[in-house]
Amino acid sequence: MPAPRAARPTMPATVPGLRIGLFGGSFDPPHAGHRHASLTALRRLGLDRVWWLVSPGNPLKDTGRLPSIGERMRAAARVAAHPRVVVTDLEARLGTRYTLDLMEALVRLKPDVRFVFLIGADNWATFHRWQDWRRIAATMPIAVVDRPGSTLKALASPAARTFASARVPERDAAGLADRKPPAWVFLTGHRVPISSTVIRLARTRRNAGLPPLVDPS
């Protein structure tokens, strides 16, 4: 008697032809900057959905103090508060560890969906340090959303130089999902000056009874 097939991990519903942005991270904590980047991508890239991929934890970072994935998903859902932004723990369900593993699994499971990988300019500036970064760029189109203080570093980064010929003009961003990778676009515009790192630092100082940091500007 043949062994039963393993059930596919539950993932958000899709239909053929959907354009979906993948926005991954620990979301510790989620904030208005995440929401702004997602709504910008929905509008500028002509996406149907953005999936917030709440990760079990960055394999390159200490996750000992990371809140549970359930806590972070609930917080992310409260911040997202949008019918086209879907919060999911798909990475944990698929059992993937690195970004490329997740991408390849999604392309295999959903070959009729057009995925776009969403990344902040701060991460694009150091993208060349990611595991298999060249293969990531060759797997899905990438939209880089500008972040305060990261514009010049991102545009002068090794990734930007390596894939200079694959850069899509910002005026053509709405067609990014239809392009064969490597293809990337840099989205400029309003930037939200907030980050999870700053929020965590402020929380730590507050809990320790220390005064808040003052912006020297």
Describe this structure in words.
The protein has 217 residues and is α/β, with parallel strands linked by helices. Helix content is 34%, strand content 15%. Residues 1-7 have low confidence and may be disordered. A six-stranded parallel β-sheet has the order 3-2-1-4-5-6. It has a single domain, classed as 3-Layer(aba) Sandwich (Rossmann fold).
Give the arrangement of secondary structure elements.
Elements: E1 19-25, H1 32-45, E2 49-54, H2 69-80, E3 85-88, H3 90-94, H4 99-109, E4 114-120, H5 121-124, H6 133-137, E5 142-145, H7 151-155, H8 158-162, E6 184-187, H9 196-207
Which tags fit this structure?
disordered N terminus, Rossmann fold, globular, alpha/beta, six-stranded parallel beta sheet, 217 residues
Summarize the structure.
With 217 residues, the chain is of the alpha/beta class. It has helices at 32-45, 69-80, 90-94, 99-109, 121-124, 133-137, 151-155, 158-162, 196-207, and strands at residues 19-25, 49-54, 85-88, 114-120, 142-145, 184-187. α1 (32-45) links the parallel β1 (19-25) and β2.
**Class in CATH?**
Alpha Beta
Write the CATH homologous superfamily.
HUPs
Helical element count? 9
The parts where pLDDT drops under 50 for at least 5 residues are 1-7
Largest sheet composition = 6 strands, parallel
CATH topology: Rossmann fold
Number of extended strands: 6
Q: Major sheet: order of its strands?
A: 3-2-1-4-5-6
Topology pattern, helix = H, strand = E: EHEHEHHEHHEHHEH
First-residue to last-residue Cα separation: 72 Å
Mean pLDDT: 87
| Helix percentage range | 25-40%
Mass-distribution shape? globular
In total, the number of domains comes to 1
- What structural class do helix, strand and pairing data support? alpha/beta
Using the 3D structure, state the CATH architecture.
3-Layer(aba) Sandwich
Beta content comes to: 5-15%
The radius of gyration is 18 Å
